[in-house]
């Protein structure tokens, strides 16, 4: 019987819920990034253990985090939100 995983992003962090195929007993892991707003939490279709989280705050801005072990550890991913090339005049 296969398992079920639900990825939940909230205003208070991220949670990973897992259960067996019957969905009678749930295991809740988290919160990851406690106090941060998590707008997106996504699993990779190529690797089920790879997760991506988009977190944001009014002070620090937006960050993308990646986990390669199902959410046990996280690392920031290429958070270079810059212009590609030189910024020019406004285009109306």
Plain-language structure description:
The protein has 92 residues and is mainly β. It is built from no helices and 7 strands. The protein has strands at 4-10, 13-19, 26-32, 37-43, 51-57, 61-67, 75-76. The N and C termini lie far apart (57 Å).
Key features?
92 residues; four-stranded antiparallel sheet; three-stranded antiparallel sheet; elongated
Largest sheet: 4 strands, antiparallel
**Average pLDDT metric:** 86
Ends apart, CA distance between termini: 57 Å
Radius of gyration: 17 Å
Strand content: over 45%
Structural class: mainly beta
Show the helix and strand layout:
Layout: E1 4-10, E2 13-19, E3 26-32, E4 37-43, E5 51-57, E6 61-67, E7 75-76
Antiparallel strand pairs: 1-2, 2-3, 4-5, 5-6, 6-7
Quick structural gist:
By secondary structure, the chain is an all-beta fold. The protein has no helices and seven strands. The chain has strands at residues 4-10, 13-19, 26-32, 37-43, 51-57, 61-67, 75-76.
């Amino acid at each position: 019987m296969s398992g079920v995983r639900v990825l939940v992003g909230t205003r208070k962090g991220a949670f990973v819920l897992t259960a067996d195929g019957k969905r009678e007993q749930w295991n809740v892991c988290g919160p990851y990034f406690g106090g941060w707003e998590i707008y997106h939490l996504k699993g990779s279709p190529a690797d089920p253990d790879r997760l991506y989280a988009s977190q944001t705050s009014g002070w620090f801005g937006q960050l993308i985090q990646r986990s390669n072990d199902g959410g046990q550890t996280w690392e920031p991913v290429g958070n270079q939100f810059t212009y590609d090339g030189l910024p020019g005049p406004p285009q109306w």
